[in-house]
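Hello, quick one for you while I still have it in my head. A protein chain has come my way and I'm curious about its shape. I'm sending you its amino acid sequence along with the backbone structure tokens. I'd be grateful if you could look everything over and explain what you see. Here's the protein in full, and shout if anything looks odd to you:
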Amino acid sequence: MSPSTAPTSTGTRGETVPTVPPAHPAVDTADVYALLERGRALSTPVLRAAVDRLAPPMDTVAAYHFGWIDADGRPADGDGGKAVRPALALLSAEAAGAPPETGIPGAVAVELVHNFSLLHDDLMDGDEQRRHRDTVWKVHGPAQAILVGDALFALANELLLEIGTVEAGRATRRLTTATRKLIDGQAQDISYEHRERVTVEECLEMEGNKTGALLACAVSIGAVLGGADDRTADTLEAYGHHLGLAFQAVDDLLGIWGDPEATGKQTWSDLRQRKKSLPVVAALAAGGPASRRLGELLAADAKSNDFETFSEEEFATRAALIEEAGGREWTSQEARRQHAVAIEALDGVDMPEKVRAQLVALADFVVVRKR
């Protein structure tokens, strides 16, 4: 797989990236936000009850992470994230012909695992901001970030197994497999930061594990809890896997060119962390003067002891070379391609047309966003 070297735009940070075909005509943006809000509204009470099981101070630390309280313990209405995974879990149940409420335990379990990964990722990456607030490790220390992350993972499996049905056991197996793949992806991501070159194929494998696996689980777990057979669940997982790759491709674009006011992260966030994200890897694979110059700079960066003192201009230079080499455009096109493959997978499941339209609309939402 070779990245395209087609000319790229000279866009600046803060653009909406990338653009995909319009959503299914039966569903508009307001309906998508309604789906996300439904997922949040139905899952949050169960999520709060699960967090209340944690021993102090882990319950308080988790509540801060979820945005329910501030650093001083006062009630807050923080940004709890986009809630795409809970929305997908509820739609998954409906795709299997079950009521959306059937998917609530799965929605909460997936959200707990997702946040377990965020707590650990923030610490490993040294990220000081998430959702426009200081991260848990910065406020409460690394030990609490590790412990609370571990506790959320344990809670996720506990909640599913408490249901006590055959379907719950099947759902738990899918969740634990997805979690193992997620951890594999994080390990790959960290190891790639210390390598001079990573192939596009390796990067896509890593992102399929780190992001695709849990989204794939989210969009199958509700169906499994609703009694769907493995073929149906596997087909829905295929949609979720490719949606996850599209989602991560957009995240990679935002990690370099995203507006900090929208993303809640530093400017040039992924470049500061030396991430071998898709735009970087595609640019290095493209060949040509910009690609070679980028490779020289990144190789020197890996050996530099002054990387933390780089100026904004130095990061901007690297971002410009990535764009000139075609990495930005290739990643945008890859997001569109993965989006199309995800939509095509839905043809393999017999589901109500309204549910299919909503899954299409959510896929459109994932690849056209600013955060």
Residues 166-193 form the longest helix (28 residues). The longest strand covers residues 129-130. Residues 29-258+335-367 form a domain with the Farnesyl Diphosphate Synthase fold (CATH 1.10.600.10). Confidence is low (pLDDT under 50) at residues 1-27.
